[in-house]
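Can anyone check this?
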Amino acid sequence: MTKRMIKTELENALKNKVASIFLILGTSLVCAGSFADGAANGDAFRATASEYASKAEHASSLGLGEIAGLYLEQSTIKANAANLADKGQWSDINWDRYHANEGRIGVLLSGTKSKK
């Protein structure tokens, strides 16, 4: 095996590990709130958090690390919103970072489309 082949294999293995970590972290965050008493209020947020965790894993598998990180942060924000909603603390949910991330994700995704 050449050094280049070994490097490529190591990079691919690392990408797979990162994708697995994203999935585990995202799923853990989503599930953590789903067992809370009265969880029904935050269920929609939890479902969206799970979708963002899946998007993070997919972006990571494509080598889009920054986008994957932003999706993971979106998942965390939604999971936090679910937990606050479960407690009836709707006014404590802050969407500033969420909206900033959405804008950044849009910019990054438009850049990846123009490169194809």
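Reply from J.R.: I decoded it. The first helix runs from residue 3 to 34.
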